[in-house]
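Sequence only, no structure available. Ideas?
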Amino acid sequence: MDIIHSAAALRERLQREPDNVFVPTMGNLHEGHIELMRVAKPRAACTVVSIFVNRLQFGPKEDFERYPRTLEADAASLEKVGVNVVFAPDEREIYPEAQTFVVEPSDLQHILEGAHRPGHFRGVATVVLKLFNLVMPHSAIFGKKDYQQYIVLRDMVRQFALPIEIIPAETVRAEDGLALSSRNAYLSEPARREAPRLYQVLRKARAALDGGARDFQRIELEAMSALAGHGWKPDYVAVRRQADLQPPGADDRALVVLAAARIDSTRLIDNVEVNLGR
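Reply:
I predicted one. Tokens follow.
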């Protein structure tokens, strides 16, 4: 496995590959990330993983400075799973000058996560487009836990006619149902015991939809109330269409229930897809 730190060296290394599949990450890898690599491996001769904590997608009061940087441990995990190339640039390599040209996503960037993290998806789309231009993959893997991010990047690739297949990977969970996330490390012991409730509330909402409920606002409010009643501070629980994350109509069948909430000082996100029969 090659660990590469410069764009020039990355391009030179990838000239030797007939094709590659790409998994962008911010490092601090857990089993959820490793599952993305397992999804990626059979899809190309060369699996490329980037590790870069992207300042542009963090808000001014978010955790950019304290986000864990664990390159040595990450590299060991990636070598075990058979990754071929790790691109681990420093900030000056990705942003040698102020990034004044940016990708401005659709209005999708202003709802749900975007409403609570202004500019987040602009930063994500900008760095991912830059990484795509460096790696030039034929496919890229993104986890469904960050569902809105997946939709934004899928739409970006389509609208810019990039020759890249965006492949979603299922959310990986702990035995108690908590979606794996780098930010789970911030949870205190009591908060970690409480954290699976977020998934439980989403499953209850899915069960209501499967059972024929169509009062989407009531489902959302009941879910938020269930979280608040156990000490959470919910930002949103939302029933949306899978295709575009817009509010569904009564006849929409492919839905997703998304949630973001804080327990203590840690903000968690999760979602469940709902595919209703005709």
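The first helix runs from residue 7 to 14.
Hope that gets you unstuck.
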